[in-house]
Amino acid sequence: MVTRRGFLTTSLGALAAPMLAACSAGGKGAAGGGQLLTASDVHVADYPTVTAVKWIGQQLEQRTGGRLRLSQYHSGQLGRESEAIDMARFGAIDITRVYSGALNNAFPLTRALCLPYVFDSVAHMRRALDSGIAETVLQGFESRDLVGLAIYDSGARSFYNTKHPIVEPKDLHGLKLRVASSDIFLQLMRMFGANPTPMSLGDTFSGMETHMIDGAENNMRSFHSSRHFEAAHYWSESQHSYAPDILLMSRRSFDALTPADRRLLLDLARQSVQVMRIEWDASENKAREAVLAAGVKFNAVDLPAFHEAAAPLLREYLQQADIAALHRRIRDFA
Questions:
Q1: Are residues 137 and 263 in contact, defined by beta-carbon separation less than 8 angstroms?
Q2: How far apart (Å, rounded) are the C-alpha atoms in residues 185 and 305?
């Protein structure tokens, strides 16, 4: 009898096979010997999270004399984030970087990081994450075949669209916006009056070009690297969420490492957060300059109006004791 787990493992392995023919998860590399780990990301080659994981791979190879190496598949080569999560859970790939919003439904503690206006700024977010909150959230992955390696912040998320500036929530009424498959973001967009449309990042550009959607919400770096600014010429600084990215590893692959190698990998993953942040700060500024030069129109929003519109959602989630406790800890660093 074929079990669901067996079916998923077989299916996900088949999905990854074309890309991983030379390096099945946790196995031997095709050249040079040693153990080759695989990592995936939907973002492009020079995106800060990709750069940070590349750094981890370089350090692993250097520290182990080539015994441990890492091969990266960026730009969505191994599929969407939802697929990468399952592939990691079942050991088809070793490491993946995932947007926290895509994890909300399966890993409840990530919801505290995605709630509207929980962080006041990038500086506030980094202080809070570095205070031990990141460790608390990462521990929550242990129950479902994953290991939380690090949390990479990803700037403020704002609205962009093809129609007009967004100043108040009422300006979103009737707009079809791409969102990640997260209950929080679906609810939030409805509270703002928009029509949320779950869609992968890779499908968003064509969605705007074909008028399937009118816009989306994301950070400035992704707005630029995905080239969404070529279709959406209005950027509105709502900064409604600072939902970060999370670096995950297959529990199966992690357990296959020696205790010393596990410690090394965890240490390098934590160190890579600073690598990512340096890259992020520099590239975000360049991205903003580039989209301005391309003619994108920027505007400020009525932040009190957006706070008020989002408040019922915040109150709903703060009824959950674990989310409320994490929220209090985050706000202590405001």
A1: no
A2: 18
Residue 1: pLDDT band (50, 70, 90) is very low
d(CA 323, CA 112): 6
Task: Give per-residue pLDDT as tens, 219-248.
Answer: 999 999 999 999 999 999 999 999 999 999
Give the residue from 212, 210, 190, 188 showing the smallest Cα distance to 199: 212
Q: What share of the chain is helix, strand, coil (3-state, %, to 5)?
A: 50, 20, 30
Nearest residue to 195 (alpha-carbon basis) of 211, 214, 181: 214
Coil, strand or helix: which one is 332?
coil
- Count of C-beta atoms within a 10 Å radius of residue 164: 15
The Cα 59–Cα 275 span in angstroms is 12
Q: Are 253 and 25 in contact (CB under 8 A)?
A: yes
Please answer whether residues 16 and 78 qualify as being in contact, where contact means their C-beta atoms are separated by less than 8 angstroms: yes
For the chain, list the strands marked E by DSSP. Answer: 35-40, 68-73, 95-99, 146-152, 157-161, 176-179, 195-198, 215-219, 234-241, 245-250, 297-300
> Which residues 6+ apart lie within 8 Å of 214 measured at CB?
161, 162, 163, 175, 176, 177, 208
Q: Whole-model pTM?
A: 0.88
Contacts of residue 273, defined as CB under 8 A and 6 or more positions apart, other chains included, come to: 52, 150, 151, 152
DSSP-assigned letter for residue 132: I
